[in-house]
Design brief:
The structure is a homodimer. Chain A is α/β, with parallel strands linked by helices. Chain A has 11 helices and 15 strands. The first copy, chain A, has a 7-stranded parallel β-sheet, sandwiched between helices. In chain A, strands 1-3-2 form a 3-stranded antiparallel β-sheet. In chain A, strand 7 and strand 8 form a beta hairpin. Chain A starts with a helix and ends with a helix. At the A-B interface, helix 1, strand 1, strand 3, helix 7 and strand 6 of A face helix 1, strand 1, helix 2, strand 3 and helix 6 of B. Strand 6 of chain A pairs antiparallel with strand 7 of chain B. Chain A binds a DNA duplex through helix 3.
Chain lengths: 271, 271
DNA sequence: CAGCGCATTTGGTATTTACAACATAATTGC
DNA sequence: GCAATTATGTTGTAAATACCAAATGCGCTG
């Protein structure tokens, strides 16, 4: 489709530059490449449409992490919900506890929450985004070994579960691809094993799922409902699921929308 | 010193926002906080001076990673040199090899290099910046466990070295705080142990150091010169050090400046 | 409460960028 | 080589931003 060297080379080099500096100005790129600002502007718009960078006023900014270029539209759609869930989940954590946090978008949101606070936690995770989110806090951070999965931004595999098995936590927060009366489901086999280990190695386990996960039957059953102690979600689960949850003695926390003075609100409005 | 809530709160919230989105516009922040754009502009300038964010034309962009807020001025000063070193070191890697990469700024530069290429490497590292840099490549990535050190952006400790000891690599690239006739030195005890393990578990070890590390005697001796096979640096080492290196049979690679058509050049000019 | 220092606002102007419509140049396919 | 398509450059105008300096407001201290 595209075989022209000119434009493609510019695009490639623009992206390359953005790996080193988070922001480039249109004017700079234009003089550098010897083309008009209009051309660069068009380049940036094109790359932005492809989701490879974000536009800014005078230029472009790099997408955070080389991670998750192909974010599901479904994921995108539930940003607010997942923030609300993270907000509610953060209340379940008490100072000084040992907390295991699964890899995932909702759990990463939770980590941001916990990272801003000042509780002296010990956090064990297999996800770098989670570690990064908590980096500035006072918490102690233990990262798992394993094969790095760029898409998930975390490590998985036998090494990961073996390592996790050495620890014992007060709380574990896990995510999932689906939640049915049968139990918790996930699409990723390696991730499923990690989740099972997290459940096994913690006193209490909370599942963080938004409503789109309700009644989703996917590849693999991670664990039955009875394996977890509570779920944190954004909407009340449907009747049949609610019955199963009650029978399995799983408490249900439904998160309200984040408050207006919340810093995350700003992000939403900006986006 | 600062007890006023007004300004400080804005600053904190601006930084918070930048954790979620890579870019904010001045106008957006102004309307959000109910203050003038001038005020936000000053906020941004102040935060920029503190190195907490980068200014852009219409706003600000987040510093890449929550990592290394306090970068040494010395580190800052030798950016070009370290890029050149990374450029030269990347030539030492052949497709298909198993490569261990130490945590550090120079080694992270190397990872960027290797990440852009298409050699199918297996990379073992204790540094997330390294992993992140390579994420988009075809390489397999194995991350070590351990205590996460936000300042270094990597994991260290007994867990880390134990884990590393299970592997065997063709090449290892390590950094250091100092290099003298006596050997390789480092300020961080945990990091020193990791480096020793990297050396022990690889067929060949290259030390990546810029000229400011020459003749720097710091806390701990990591290993004698004879432990490594080569160094990659930006300037020829001083006479006495050169003699020691030759006696220890250490090859010296002196990197030239990066070529003009190199994508990184652009970054430098922008900065 | 007067005075001081700091943060913020206000107002005005110079620059820079965005946007759109059109002209020109380059490339491709036939 | 010609026509169609695409890429790039030009121009003009509106909007957004940057910069500067002075004025105002506000909190604090004595």
């Amino acid at each position: 489709m595209t075989r022209k060297p000119r434009k493609d080379e510019r695009h490639a080099r623009i992206l390359e530059v953005l790996r080193y500096t988070p922001h480039v100005r249109i004017a700079t790129l234009a003089t550098r490449f010897g083309v008009t600002t209009e051309t660069i502007r068009r380049d940036l718009d094109a790359l932005s449409d492809q989701g490879l960078l974000d536009r800014a006023h005078g230029g472009a900014v790099a997408r955070p992490m080389g991670i998750q270029p192909p974010i599901d539209e479904r994921e995108q759609a539930t940003v607010d919900e997942r923030r609300a869930i993270a907000h509610a989940a953060a209340r379940l954590v008490e100072p000084g506890q040992v907390v295991m946090i699964d890899a995932g978008s909702t759990t990463t949101q939770l980590a941001w929450r916990l990272g801003t606070g000042d509780r002296a936690l010990t956090v064990i995770t297999n996800s770098y985004p989670v570690a990064s989110a908590m980096a500035s806090s006072t918490s102690r951070l233990i990262l798992c070994p394993g094969d790095f999965n760029a898409r998930e931004g975390g490590v998985f595999g036998q090494d990961t579960t073996d390592y996790l098995a050495r620890f014992h936590a007060n709380l574990a927060f896990i995510g999932a691809s689906g939640l049915t009366g049968e139990g918790i489901l996930d699409v990723n086999r390696d991730a499923a094993w990690v989740k099972r280990t997290l459940i096994a190695r913690s006193e209490r386990t909370y599942l963080l799922v938004d409503h789109t996960k309700f009644a989703q039957t996917v590849l693999e059953l991670v664990a039955p409902l009875s394996a977890i102690d509570g779920i944190v979600t954004d909407r009340p689960p449907p009747e049949s699921l609610a019955r199963h949850l009650q029978r399995a003695d799983v408490t249900v926390h439904v998160a309200g929308p984040v408050t207006a003075d919340d810093p995350q609100r700003l992000t939403e409005e900006i986006a």
